[in-house]
Amino acid sequence: MASEQRGETDSLPKKIVKMTVIYILATLLALGLWTIRVRAENIIMVYLISVIILMIEIHQFLWGGIYTVICILSFNFFFTAPRYTLRVNDPNYIVTMVIFLIVSVITGLLVSKLREQVEVSQRNENRMKALFEISCGYLKLSGLDNIVYYVLKSLFQAAGERCVVYLAKSPGELGKPYFIKSHFDENMVDNNTPAVWCFINNTVCGAGTGFFSDSRWVYMPVKNRESCIGVIGIYTDGKEVDSNHMVFVNTVMSEMVMAVEKENIELERSRVELEGQRGKFLDALNHSLQCNFIRPFTSNMEEFKNVIAGCREEDRQRNRLSELYLRFRTLYNRTVNTIQMYNIEFGEVYAEREKTDFQKLVDEALACYEECAGERIVWLRRPDGELPVRVDAGQMKQVISNILNNALVYTPENTKIYISLTKEQGKGKLEISDSGSGITPQLLQKSMSDEEKQENILGCGLIAASEIVEANGGRMIIRSSQYGGTLFMISLEEAEPD
Predict the structure, then answer these.
(1) Under 8 Å CB-to-CB from 3, ≥6 apart: which residues?
(2) Where is the Histidine kinase domain (predicted)?
(3) Residue 4: is its pLDDT beyond 80?
(4) 166 pLDDT exceeds 70?
(5) Which SS3 state, helix, strand or coil, does residue 229 take?
(6) pLDDT tens across 282-299, in order?
(7) Which range has the top average pLDDT, 5-14, 194-203, 246-255?
(8) Where residue 348 falls among pLDDT bands split at 50, 70, 90?
(9) Sign of CA dihedral 71, 76, 78, 80
């Protein structure tokens, strides 16, 4: 293969030297055979062999044709009568020389074709070897960037192709281009327009095609089954790209697609494992907090409430205990809200919905504050009988408790909290309003950062409440109250009768 490549790239003087050396050696051998009285018909075979040797060394049919003519003239000059002239007395020698010319042409063509086949076979062998080495290299890689840059480096080393790769960022949008800067000058890198067109239309474009034909690049879609996951651009500088090179590039890109798909599968598997571990951690954390903090804390608050109930109304100690109880209740709600927010952040809110009385839920939530709220809570309207809804009773009671707690903590002590529970158009509608300073729009946003959630405990609780209400098939609306503060309205679908 090395000698063939040297023959194709030899300079003109070097080719002349090669042809001269072969001619001199062939002629000397022929003259030597002539001196030992070998017939002229056999001597001409020496020149035929020299033609084959020349074709193997120089690899160009034109040079073989010129050399064949020189050999015929030399044979006529040295070995046919009259010798040392270009005349021929015997017509048989004319036939011999014509046959020699024909055989030389046919032999030259066969040698040329054989050489081409050998070169193709050698190139295919080298490409298969390169593909094997590239495939082995994928096994050691991890990370999308490393895979793409490995492909670019391999294509340049194995096939001399300077390429740029775009991977899909989202449907209809390509990400940043990947290319090795040392392979290009600044003016060689094309703009992204042809690559984007190729990606959107899933069609080859660029040099030598019907689209963006003035480009010096050829862009091909990188496909994974039926979908296009990116684009590869091959720098041609206006030259036609060899079809075998295109097959090699496509094969390498197919291997890259499999490596990228494997990487995505690994990332998805890691994400699923992480989600599972995170879910287990949250479950364990919830269980631990429930057993070691929330349940004991709730029990202690109940005892605290009983102590407050045993004090006289005018007792100053009762007022201080009521205030302290409200602080403990607020701390409890904030702890529960934090747990709920992390559940919302890392997963979904699951509600175990069962048929229950909406009015009973409100009464149970109010009972937690009856000793510390006093006469601040005022009922405006309530249904005469039961108002059945299908919800998670524990979750909804916590939502109502949150709203009442915020109203008691963030409004002046001498203001009222108004509650209304009605049935309207097949829905249970709960309204809790106060006359405080209201809530800023920032606290009502669901897209607060982690730092904002830590600073804005009130907003954190309201977001958790809204998510829980939606998970229970309801809706929570927050707006200005007619009393100057904030109105919380919760509507739930009435449960169908059994």
Answers:
(1) 57
(2) 333-496
(3) no
(4) yes
(5) strand
(6) 676 666 666 656 666 666
(7) 194-203
(8) low
(9) positive
**Stretch 61-85: mean pLDDT, rounded?**
84
Mind giving me the DSSP string for 391-429?
E-HHHHHHHHHHHHHHHHHSS-TT--EEEEEEEETTEEE
For 439, the 3-state DSSP assignment is coil
Three-class DSSP category at 224: strand
Domains of the chain, CATH where assigned? 10-132 (no CATH), 142-267 (3.30.450.40), 344-491 (3.30.565.10)
Q: How many CA atoms lie within 13 A of 401 on its CB side?
A: 22
Q: Which amino acid is at 453?
A: K
pLDDT in tens, 233-247: 888 876 776 777 777
Token pair recorded at residue 218: 């050829």
Is residue 459 within 8 Å of 442, Cβ to Cβ?
yes
Show Cβ contacts of residue 293 under 8 Å, excluding neighbours closer than 6 positions: 335
Q: Which residues contact 185 (CB under 8 A, 6 or more apart)?
A: none
Residue 7 has φ and ψ, to the nearest 5°, of -65, -35
Gap between the Cα atoms of 396 and 354, Å rounded: 11
Which amino acid appears at position 362 of this protein? V
Neighbours of 29 (CB within 10 A): 15
**Token pair 């605290």: residue:** 304
Rounded CA-CA distance 308/318 in Å is 6
Q: What is the largest CA-CA distance in the chain?
A: 152
The secondary structure element, H or E, covering residue 24 is helix 12-35
- DSSP SS3 for 144: helix
> In this model, does residue 353 exceed pLDDT 80?
yes
Sign of the torsion formed by the C-alpha atoms of 182, 187, 192 and 197: negative
**Helix crossing, 40-58 with 2-9: angle to 10°?**
90
Alpha carbon of 273 to those of 269, 339, 344: distances in Å? 6, 22, 19
Q: How far apart are CA 165 and CA 191, in angstroms?
A: 13
Query: Contacts by 114-123 with C-beta closer than 8 Å and gap 24+?
Result: 115/4, 115/55, 115/56, 115/59, 118/1, 118/4, 119/1, 119/4, 120/244, 122/1, 123/244
Residue 231: which of 157, 176, 183, 149 has the closest Cα? 176
Cα–Cα distance for residue pair 84/74, rounded to 1 Å: 9
Task: In whole angstroms, give the CA distance from residue 134 to residue 128.
Answer: 10
Sign of torsion, CA 278 283 288 290? positive
What's the CA gap between 462 and 405, in Å, rounded?
11
